Amino acid sequence: MTKKTMTLNLTDAEMAALEALSVEKDVSKTAILRQALRLYQVVSGRMQQGEKLFLEDVDSKDKKELVVL
Amino acid sequence: MTRHKVTLRQEQSGRYVDAELIERIDAALAKRAEDAWQTYVATAKVEALAANRPFPVLEHTHWEWERKVSITERLLPYPTLGIECAGHVQGLMLLETDGHFGQLPTQSGSPLVYVNILATAPWNLPGVTDPPRYRGVGTVLLSAAASMSVELGFKGRLGLHSLPKSEEWYNRLGMTCLGSDPNKQGLKYYEMSPDQAQHLIR
């Protein structure tokens, strides 16, 4: 894959969250950010088509809408 | 579309020839491939019938590449790859980079790249064309998928459901068969571990 490089400025809290996800998922910080972008693109595209994103409680089946920018 | 140089084996001459691996194919290229492949199959069927030769049942002529590529070409989780050689599309592949996880005992729950569909041009299939024009199309595509899996941080892990006629080929590549999947019309599910991927990429 052809790649382009950019500098990313994160706060301490953002970097800590990124590092924690990187350890939890056993992938690099770059991989986490790229995965987040892929997810965000798909969700954003679906929402632009009028769909909504919900989180469902496995036991109670209660649904809460996840509001995305 | 980004292009990289690869090589394929030209079966008739036995030589390796230059080809291009294309990242993120567009709908126009998919349509060109689909048109050429369908025309070739139709002609080859007529010729086989006229010569009283059996013609193999092809399992992947219904995949609607143009439609699928036009839906996914701007979506990051659905990368596509193609191979062009001698002005013709020799193979195509559609991948999914999210939502699929390892089922091998050693890779359980770890993310992998899923091969949604992979096809080589009909003139590269033994039985349709003898000898086939080019060998190695599927291997180059699958190797590129494994490389993509490494770059995404998935360590080369791949998963796919095989059509019956391709099972032997995936076995030869060293992928592990995890049995029939009732959720995919009983197709067998195959997985490639990081070690197996390294062997393929090398």
Number of domains of chain B: 1
Order of helices and strands of chain B: EEHHEEEEHEHEEH
Uncertain ranges of chain B: none
Helix content class of chain B: 25-40%
* Main sheet overview of chain B: 9 strands, mixed
- Can you count the helices of chain A? 2
Biggest sheet strand order of chain A reads 1-2
Strand order across the biggest sheet of chain B?
6-1-2-3-4-5-7-9-8
Please state the oligomeric state of the protein chains shown.
heterodimer
The shape of chain A is extended
Number of strands of chain B: 9
Beta fraction of chain A: 5-15%
Helices of chain B, by number, come to 5
Sketch the major β-sheet of chain A: 2 strands, antiparallel
Q: Overall mean pLDDT score of chain A?
A: 92
Low-confidence runs of chain A: none
Would you state the CATH class of chain B? Alpha Beta
Question: Which structural category do the helix and sheet elements of chain B fall into?
Answer: alpha+beta
Percent of residues in β-strands of chain B: 25-35%
Layout of secondary structure:
The complex is a heterodimer of chains A (69) and B (202).
Chain A: H1 12-25, H2 29-48, E1 54-56, E2 63-65
Antiparallel strand pairs in A: 1-2
Helix pairs in contact in A: 1-2
Chain B: E1 2-10, E2 15-23, H1 27-50, H2 65-72, E3 80-85, E4 88-96, E5 113-120, E6 134-135, H3 137-151, E7 158-162, H4 167-172, E8 176-180, E9 188-192, H5 194-201
Parallel strand pairs in B: 5-7
Antiparallel strand pairs in B: 1-2, 1-6, 2-3, 3-4, 4-5, 7-9, 8-9
